[in-house]
Amino acid sequence: MDGQLKTGTSLTAESSNKYKVISLLGAGGQGEVYDVECGGKHFALKWYFKHMATKSQKEILDNLITKGAPNASFLWPQDLIFNGYGEPFGYIMPLRPKNFKSIVDMMKRRAEPSFQSLCKAAYNLTNGYQKLHAMGYSYRDISFGNMFFDPDTGDVLICDNDNVSANGIDNSSVYGTPRFMAPEIIVGQAKPSRNTDLYSLAVLLFYMFMMGHPLEGKLEAEIKCMDIHAMNKLYGKNPIFIYDPNDKSNRPVKGYQDNVIIYWDLYPQVIRDLFTKSFTVGLTAPNKRVTEKEWLEAFANLLSGIVLCPKCGAEVFSDVHKHENGVAQTCWNCKSAVSMPATLVVGKSRVLLQKDAKLYAHHIYGDFDMNTVVGTVVQNPKNPNLWGIRNESSENWTYIKPDGIQIPVAIGKSAAIAKNVRIDFGQMTGEFK
Amino acid sequence: MAEALKRPGGELASRPLHFFWVVDCSGSMYGEKIGTVNHAIQSTIPEMLDAAKDNPNAQLLVRTLRFSTGATWVTPNPVSIEDFAWDDLDASGVTDLGKAFEMLAAQLTIPPMTDRALPPVIVLLSDGQPTDDYKKSLDKLLHLPWGKKAVRIAISIGQDADDDVLQQFTGNRELVLQANNPQALVKMIKWASTAASLVSAPASRPKEMNIIPAGNNTPSATNAPLVLDMNNIPDPGSIGANDVW
């Protein structure tokens, strides 16, 4: 495949770094992406097509490079190659490692994350957008093409950040991608914003968890020709959630939308509730859409609420609603009953207490850090029937017995898991249930 | 502890997308013209395959129809892009475009077409005037539900092509692409091959560009973005013999 830039071309960036063009990696609607080299390291270069190399694009890039990436999940512009207006230009960003797969790979079952990795990817993705929105930006084009994930770890990389600009300022060149665009954009009533990002994010999350689209039910099955007019109606003018509790007219149809039927009941009620809110209230009230924080709290609990079915090994999500209502939890694969271990409840967080389960900073500080381990569920070496949580944080905890007696749990020590016992983690107190 | 099982379910549901190459193989195409067409279409197949791999919404099915004296399906049945290979066409005879429309119409009828699909894409390449009565069969084609919904693109090769006829087929002057030299022909074939991905998963719409609605009705709202972005059609004026890729 030939691109606009020849292999071996040397380009001088504004940082005065020199980049050598190695090969063309791909092309899209706005430009081409090349593998380039500088000082023995490889980077990606996005090189705009002539008609996309605009002044406003240059200004967006200048700002993004100055501000820097929201967190490590972004392949963020870091250097600019610009020789004056009227000339093509491009920007440098980190190169995506090969072990990262696209969501399309997931949709086509070429990438098979475990539920654990899937939840981690959803968490990391949402966390990335939360950080981006916190900087006052909107992304404007959340869709299949601009996020990659590692199926083994759930790490994510968000790319195509060159449309990111200050929320509310209309200077970027995109309106979004069909099937992901918020209804108010499709009908021409709104431009991309943080709130339309929240809609697109919910669609992407729905695709990841349910392997289908939240608005594609009976109404989609009945459409013969899926052309632009049909898409405008289905996703814009007349959107109806497939599991709208008050409107059953668009339920998924067996034979056409099997995946959503399989997945919908597999997740805990709290996930179904968030998707229901996203695609009922959230269809028409952009400022009432599910926020990243709500998603993150739910995903953190999903991650800490997976048990393996002892019979078949399938990952089963514990559902607090079922637990509280005394409904037995069953394996989605072999249908056998799965008993759930005890739970540590800290504020909104719930952690299933099973062998090697980790307690993360988020669980005891509520800070959305699901990477820093602060505790591990361990067996008592003297009595393997006794389980405890080892303090791996940097602060001492306090163990509070039912009779009120307090025992310090120093760093490195373990606190036994027992009914009605509480642990004071400093900022928050947890209880075994 | 047993190893975790694969998540259940199958691939994301997708719809068939029928793509037709309809190639004028009359005597006037003999020599370099048909040679360029053969080479250019063959070269686009791997790119179409790559695009299809990245497209979760469509199953791309390709077919070739040739017309000269009469018309023949080179691939009688739809072939998945993964299995599609280009068979070189040769040129002789007259330009029975009407016969080609008639055969297209037969294939766009339900059945053999399924009743649920993405809009078909028909790319017609021609360098001359129809020698048969094309009007009746074109009319029939354009009145079929799938004929009406099809994205119809014509590539007008050289100075002698009848652009009025091609425009009757596309329904839109801007979808009659001019290819007055081999370089332009290659570029237009390449662009037309990308229409498949534009139809099934239109790219983000660049703002303030010339947009052509893909259907007959212009969406009522001025900002309605679900339109086929024709912005990247190469401009024939900017393609010269020195334009090397």
**How big a fraction of the residues of chain A is strand?**
15-25%
- Separate helix tally of chain A: 13
| Strand content range of chain B | 15-25%
Kindly provide the name of the CATH class of the largest domain in chain A. Answer: Mainly Alpha
Count of β-strands of chain A: 23
Largest interface between protein chains, with number of residues from each side: A-B, 71 and 56 residues
H-E order of chain B: EHEEEHEHHEHEHH
Roughly how many Å apart are the termini of chain B? 57 Å
Written overview of the protein:
The complex is a heterodimer of chains A (433) and B (245). Chain A has 433 residues and is of the alpha+beta class. Chain A has three domains: 85 residues, 2-Layer Sandwich (Phosphorylase Kinase, domain 1); 196 residues, Transferase(Phosphotransferase), domain 1; 92 residues, Tumour Suppressor Smad4. Helices cover 27% and strands 22% of the residues of chain A. In chain A, helix 3 runs antiparallel to helix 5 and helix 3 runs antiparallel to helix 11. The radius of gyration of chain A is 24 Å and the shape is globular. The model of chain A has no long low-confidence stretch (mean pLDDT 94). In chain B, strands 1, 2, 3, 4, 5, 6 and 7 form a seven-stranded mixed beta sheet that branches. Chain B contains seven helices and seven strands. In chain B, a hairpin with a 1-residue loop joins strand 2 and strand 3. Chain B has one domain: von Willebrand factor, type A domain (Rossmann fold, 3-Layer(aba) Sandwich). The C terminus of chain B is likely disordered. The interface between A and B is large, with 71 and 56 residues.
